[in-house]
Amino acid sequence: MTATVRLQSASRARWLAARRRGITATDAPAILGLSAWKTPLGVWLDKVQPQPEEQAYRYSKGHALEPLLAAEYARRTGARMEKPPLILAHPDHPELIASLDYLAHTPEDTHIVECKTSNQWEEWADNGLPDLYAAQVLYQLAVTGLPYGVVFADVTGRLETRRVPRDLDWEADTLPVLLRWWAEQVEANEPPPLDPYRDYSLLNRVWASDPAEETYADDAVLGSLGAFVALRDRAKEREHTMTGLRTQVREYMGTAGVLLDPTTDRKIATVTKAGALLITYKNGSTTT
């Protein structure tokens, strides 16, 4: 392994503080646009404006299951499992860091083992691997110089193994992107381009508004405001029409709890115990 040890052991608070001083294996996929959980702006805010940790249940669950998955991987492969130092750094680029779940030692080699849990089978079917996890392991291999990593995952109760070999072409394309992002966004304290659909909830952390400060709208933002108002009005009209149609269906059903298609006998609408009308007509999607 070619990585240097940045942090051997420490408290969780010190570990989190050290992770903010570099790009981690969870940051890299988000910066590359591969994460469903975090955007580049979210990563940037974690580095320049850290907030008290809020441990989501899915992270706590995954962390709790890691030792069980590691023990099962060792049982299946005969590997000796090791908890590596808390933070490793790329030998040439100290801002590229990684915290590994486990190192597995066999007579043939030493490799990374990442323990995951997932409730989504679709991305794992046909020997697949979610892009997020593939990018995480590829990044860890770039930092450590190890030949391959294994994702060992509990996917809806099924144990799945995916081997990810080191990819020098991926590193040649990706590491400069990450290094440039670190220099231009974090070191320069400049927020990255916004994701217009996922970053709205973060904007108050980027700009603290001053109630006494005023600014004039330009033509572009006036156009955005006009488009927003038009969509809002259409949404109100759509909701008004949908409510009327739901009322007609519910009135027709009367005391019946289930509405059937007369040609197929399929359920096309039901009334829940709470009194909500669920419509499953035609395409099978449920609308309340």
Q: What report would you give on this structure?
A:
It is built from 8 helices and 11 strands. It has 288 residues and is of the alpha+beta class. The chain has 2 domains: 4-205, Lambda Exonuclease, Chain A (Alpha-Beta Complex); 219-279. Strands 2-5-6-7-8 form a 5-stranded mixed sheet. A 3-stranded antiparallel sheet has the order 1-3-4, with helices on both faces.
Brief summary:
By secondary structure, this protein is α+β, with helices and mostly antiparallel strands. The chain has helices at residues 12-19, 27-31, 40-48, 57-77, 131-144, 168-187, 203-206, 219-253, and strands at residues 4-7, 80-82, 87-89, 97-98, 102-105, 110-118, 148-155, 158-165, 258-260, 267-271, 277-279.
Domains (count):
2
User: Rg, please?
Assistant: 25 Å
Report the span from N to C terminus: 55 Å
Q: Based on CA inertia axes, which overall geometry fits?
A: flat
Strand content: 15-25%
Question: What's the average pLDDT?
Answer: 92
Based on DSSP secondary structure assignment, what is the total number of beta strands?
Answer: 11
The protein's oligomeric status is single chain
**What is the ordering of alpha helices and beta strands?**
EHHHHEEEEEHEEHHHEEE
